[in-house]
Amino acid sequence: MPIQLLMPALSPTMEEGKLVKWMVTEGSKIQAGDIIAEIETDKATMEYESVDDGTVGRLLFPDGAEGIKINTPIALILEEGEATSELDGFEVAAPAEKSPEAETPAPERAAAKPVQAAAKPKAAAPSAVEPEVPEGTKFTSMTVREALRDAMAEEMRRDKDVFLMGEEVAQYEGAYKISQGLLAEFGDRRVVDTPITEHGFAGIGVGAALAGLRPIVEFMTFNFAMQAIDHILNSAAKTLYMSGGQLGTPIVFRGPNGAAARVAAQHSQCYAAWYSQVPGLIVVAPYDAASAKGLLKAAIRSPNPVVFLENEKLYGRSFDVPVMDDFVLPIGKARIVRPGNDATIVSFSIGVAKSLEAADLLAAEGIEAEVIDLRTLRPLDMETVLASVRRTNRCVSVEEGWPQSGIGAEIAASIMEHGFDDLDAPVIRVCGKDVPMPYAANLEKLALPHPEDIVAAVKAVCYR
Amino acid sequence: MAAASAKKSAKAAPKKAQSKSRLQDLPKLYREMLLIRRFEERAGQMYGMGLIGGFCHLYIGQEAVVVGMQAAAREGDQMITGYRDHGHMLAMGMDPNGVMAELTGRAGGLSKGKGGSMHMFSVEKNFYGGHGIVGAQVSLGTGLAFANAYRNNGAVTMAYFGDGASNQGQVYESFNMAELWRLPIVYVIENNHYAMGTSVERSSAMPDLHRRGESFAIPGRKVDGMDVLTVREAALEALEHCRSGKGPIILEMMTYRYRGHSMSDPAKYRTTEEVKKVRAEQDPIDKARAHLLAENLIDEAGLKEIDREVKAIVAEAAEFAQSSPEPDPAELYTDILR
After folding, report:
1. Is A267 a catalytic residue?
2. Distance from B320 to chain A by nearest Cα, in Å?
3. Res A154: pLDDT
4. May I ask the CATH architecture of the domain A139-322?
């Protein structure tokens, strides 16, 4: 029986990839270790090595095929002694489930589907009318990754003092491919590869900002920014105050925050609550591509230090983004991504995706939940939250971070202080579990909040 | 061989003329050192009276370092340092009234009373603080130098830190990037021998701090930091090194603080004899004064005149620092964001 070669998973969050080109042809003899294909994911291009000896029997996808789900058979290999006739009538197996990720769309069988269509979220809220978007504006579908890149490129074109520094941002074009094309356009003076030295380059970034430049400091993940947190807090956030208003720090610290997939405790922490506690910082955590673009542009223009928390699992998802010359969103404004009158779900970043899924499930049961995307975590737009709770009288907060002293804790306390009489039920927090992130797939799933948890919480506050 | 002959003729120039130009600024440098000394003595006194709170780290004994360095700097060069920063600000020409009023936490302070002893800044004078986290100023200073290189503006950054900070990891992260990117920065290590109460010998596996850049190929010099003219010469060379595009350089200034690490210091880590001996034999201000008199650059009357001027400046600063009002309560909520 022929061996099936499967589309490999080359990163923890990869769901599909592109077969750039075959390095073998049907009939080629191969040995374990031979490079048989070049595969491109949203993060990197890699060579695919065979682990078997044999003869290439059939290539199931042509060069350039995109959107191939992981674990989809891409070629059949004949073992020694097997005849080509073995291929005839051989049934190609369906791709196996990759992981029990709740929000991962079920792998589709029609293999060669374009990336963007496949990644489209169910509830891509009809880009509900931002006041910043004039009527009649056209929209285009774009990944969060592209939106972030475009935001940086536009701001770098606009202001020669803006530059990007971080690990692998230049030649590698970003560990998560966020800075694609920037080195080519702006050169190595403005797109600066640093050594692996977070504490040092964060300090250098802040120093450059004190001198009046506008650095964008990329952390490969915010987990690594722990080494640099002294400069983010003590050097960036506090200097304006300590200088009596003389010396500001116009800098953006950005990168993926929170859990990716199967990378365990040290690479999976959500820092939203940590940074949101610090006066002198602005903290942004966008969900969709339009917010990512409009708010990153605002962050780069801000005269203040901004911590810009992205999410690795959202990078590849596509959303509608307005086609405008200069689309900038105001910092500190939440957005109602789905209106409803029965309960308010407040979330940010990937929690919004889960909340929208939950709202769909709730709607099927006759509960219309309003979903608020906070977008900025400091300053927190409590006005929008309180106005919503005034209508719905019920509130659930959703975040992937830990419960104690979290964003949800802050929201619950604020509602109690400023909207106690509007509540018909206590606020419920849906959070990551109070444990370090485990590696095992089943445990990791248990540690993270899912739409079902949100549904249960909303039902509880609705007494249903 | 024009260069060689020029060198020769410089060497052949009359010794006296050369030393004269070298000494020309000494009265001014003496005055600047004396201002720092008297200012710090008054700050110590006011701390004792309860007029200054929190931490207060005095620069007494180390005056020649910053005065000598600054004498070599050009307009546009930046300075950044740690928390022992009063002397640096005075040497940068910042207003003594504003510095002292910041120490007393008054509205007239350079940071409106919100920064205190360790946190003052002057964008106008290119002084970037005043940082309370040991070693942070080294990365921040390297960032200032990065901005100079980015703008290609010819300016050099002087980042000061102590022997204690020289053991912080971010110092070496910064060294690496500074040399990698050839940033124009002079790392000035003020080696006063004690990080709080821990001597260099007890804290440093390799106590020759000017050699700490060797593994990054950053040159380093050991300098007598108790002699203002020696400091200035080393500074001129170092600044030229940076300005000519050769990247960073380290100057280890051998110096000494007479007072405790901060105002509360049990002084159990060194003997009073040690302090007295340095003070008697190496004091940078005494040395400069003797030099001035020996070279007839000033007479006793001239010295008295400088004394009087300096005392008047310090008296005015102390007066201002006590009469300036406390910050308006509304200031609590200002300057958090722009």
Report:
1. yes
2. 18
3. 98
4. 3-Layer(aba) Sandwich (3.40)
